């Protein structure tokens, strides 16, 4: 017992009453897209995983992970600026920079940590160089880590309507005479909606208003763009690209890519880099292998896009609301929390794992089932999914109509 357990208990009761309480469930990966739900020994087809290309079990990732562990040990032993930097850190960063067509890159332990600590370091530059706080323009539906990075920096977000670049331009115009460096913060593929930002137009708006463009590419890297590069790399993309290895690249960790001077500034100012133990050798091996494999998977990307179009069209033909999805992430908007939870439970009873997404992960009254299509889903799995959703659709539509 701890001193405040009574308060924890009351707070958790409140979450339960609102159908917002969460719990952990053990999952054991099986062959392909199948998982074993350990608590009830139920075999499920996993439509919740971010392992979009199925690389988490790829033999080369496992082999290279084991190889670097054998060479350098289980851990990196310290932070990068102490004695934790291995030759493999530089090798992977060089590969990331080449992959994203940028001058340089830095590795981070996770995407959350990168966003939460890189943004304060960037915004600090504004005050140091201009004497004024940064002017930060953010998409309303940005990932929680991006919002957290802004909050940690103590800046006020100037939020534009989701993917509404006319609104963004109007807000920038309104602040045209204000002092301070300007930053535009967005994602390229939004993780809960599956829609895409218009990076080319964002670049034009950023150039027009002398703004720094920061793009989170976590869910686009490996899947979209030339050779899976994503949408925001290269000279005509973002000034800073953040991405992760924990989704299509099948392992763990994150990176930022941009100019050499940008990376050098972050090396000297970003708390999430300076004070964190370095990425361990095992993950460096997996990262290195993933970066070699991903550019070769054009056919897997083509097939994934075709599967995604098929499932999205099928859901829409059932009358289900898939929002603005145009990618491998397909939400089915269910509305209230109770409907969302009961729908997820029904899917589980039919052998399908799709997680119920509720506030605060998404806005109020926009609960959803989030389906993530992967290269591991075969025709029979997709057919079963459509059959089950066809049975479930009338109850979802009836509940939403009330």
From TrEMBL:
<keyword id="KW-0093">Biotin biosynthesis</keyword>
<keyword id="KW-0663">Pyridoxal phosphate</keyword>
<dbReference type="InterPro" id="IPR015421">
    <property type="entry name" value="PyrdxlP-dep_Trfase_major"/>
</dbReference>
<comment type="similarity">
    <text>Belongs to the class-II pyridoxal-phosphate-dependent aminotransferase family. BioF subfamily.</text>
</comment>
<feature type="domain" description="Aminotransferase class I/classII large">
    <location>
        <begin position="46"/>
        <end position="387"/>
    </location>
</feature>
<dbReference type="InterPro" id="IPR050087">
    <property type="entry name" value="AON_synthase_class-II"/>
</dbReference>
<dbReference type="InterPro" id="IPR001917">
    <property type="entry name" value="Aminotrans_II_pyridoxalP_BS"/>
</dbReference>
<keyword id="KW-0808">Transferase</keyword>
<protein>
    <recommendedName>
        <fullName>8-amino-7-oxononanoate synthase</fullName>
        <ecNumber>2.3.1.47</ecNumber>
    </recommendedName>
</protein>
<dbReference type="InterPro" id="IPR015424">
    <property type="entry name" value="PyrdxlP-dep_Trfase"/>
</dbReference>
<comment type="subunit">
    <text>Homodimer.</text>
</comment>
<dbReference type="InterPro" id="IPR004839">
    <property type="entry name" value="Aminotransferase_I/II_large"/>
</dbReference>
<dbReference type="InterPro" id="IPR015422">
    <property type="entry name" value="PyrdxlP-dep_Trfase_small"/>
</dbReference>
<dbReference type="GO" id="GO:0008710">
    <property type="term" value="F:8-amino-7-oxononanoate synthase activity"/>
</dbReference>
<dbReference type="GO" id="GO:0030170">
    <property type="term" value="F:pyridoxal phosphate binding"/>
</dbReference>
<dbReference type="Pfam" id="PF00155">
    <property type="entry name" value="Aminotran_1_2"/>
</dbReference>
<comment type="pathway">
    <text>Cofactor biosynthesis; biotin biosynthesis.</text>
</comment>
<dbReference type="GO" id="GO:0009102">
    <property type="term" value="P:biotin biosynthetic process"/>
</dbReference>
């Amino acid at each position: 017992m701890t001193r405040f357990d009574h308060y924890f208990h009351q707070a958790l009761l409140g979450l339960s009453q609102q159908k917002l309480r969460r719990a952990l469930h053990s999952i054991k990966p099986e062959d392909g897209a199948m998982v074993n739900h350990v608590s009830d020994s139920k075999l499920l087809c996993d439509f919740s995983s971010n392992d979009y290309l199925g690389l988490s079990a790829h033999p080369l990732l496992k082999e290279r992970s084991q190889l670097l562990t054998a060479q350098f040990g289980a851990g990196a032993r310290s932070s990068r600026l102490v004695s934790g930097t291995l030759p493999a850190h530089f090798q992977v960063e060089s590969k990331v920079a080449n992959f994203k067509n940028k001058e340089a890159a830095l590795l981070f332990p996770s995407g959350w940590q990168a966003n939460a600590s890189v943004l304060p370091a960037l915004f600090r530059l504004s005050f140091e160089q201009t004497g004024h706080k940064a002017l930060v323009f953010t998409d309303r539906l940005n990932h929680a880590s991006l919002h957290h990075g802004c909050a940690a920096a103590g800046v006020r977000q100037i939020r534009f309507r989701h993917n509404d670049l006319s609104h963004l331009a109007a807000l920038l115009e309104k602040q045209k005479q204000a002092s301070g460096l300007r930053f535009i913060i967005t994602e390229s593929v939004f993780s809960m909606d599956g829609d895409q930002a218009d990076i080319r137009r964002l670049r034009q708006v950023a150039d027009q208003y002398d703004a720094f463009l920061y793009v989170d590419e976590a869910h686009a890297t490996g899947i979209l763009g030339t050779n899976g590069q994503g949408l925001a790399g290269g000279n005509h993309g973002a000034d800073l690209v953040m991405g992760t290895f924990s989704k299509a690249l099948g392992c763990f960790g994150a990176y930022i890519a941009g100019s050499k001077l940008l990376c050098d500034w972050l090396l000297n100012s970003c708390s999430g880099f300076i004070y964190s133990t370095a990425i361990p050798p095992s993950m460096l091996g997996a990262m290195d292998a993933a970066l070699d494999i991903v550019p070769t998977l054009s056919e897997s990307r083509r097939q994934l896009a075709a599967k995604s179009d098929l499932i999205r069209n099928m859901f829409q033909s059932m009358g289900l609301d898939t929002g603005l999805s145009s990618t491998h992430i397909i939400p089915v908007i269910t509305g209230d929390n109770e409907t969302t939870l009961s729908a997820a439970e029904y899917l589980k009873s039919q052998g399908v794992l799709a997680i119920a997404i509720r506030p605060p992960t998404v806005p109020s009254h926009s609960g959803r089932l989030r389906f993530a299509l992967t290269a591991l889903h075969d025709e029979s799995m997709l057919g079963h999914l459509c059959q089950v959703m066809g049975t479930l659709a009338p109850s979802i539509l009836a509940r939403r109509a009330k």
